[in-house]
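Exercise 3.2. Students should predict the tertiary structure of the chain below and write it as structure tokens, then compare their answer with the key that follows.

Predict this chain's 3D structure.
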Amino acid sequence: MAPPTANDAWLAGRHFGIVIDAGSSGSRLQIYSWKDPRSIHVEKSSELAYKLPKVEKGTKDNDLWVTKVEPGE
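Answer key:
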């Protein structure tokens, strides 16, 4: 995955969250993202103005959003 640039519209107003699943058979790191609701211009009369943002896989192309490491590596 190429590094993001400041001019990438997909990144504008986006937040990221990381989930670490540290299990006995290995650890997984999952990255999620969502648009900041304050950055989306929606009419107050629209039902979208009162909904929680959609949480997505953390990358634009949904690639490399999770990685797994085996114990001892």
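Discussion points: The first strand starts at residue 14 and ends at 23. The beta strands are 14-23, 26-35, 56-57, 66-69.
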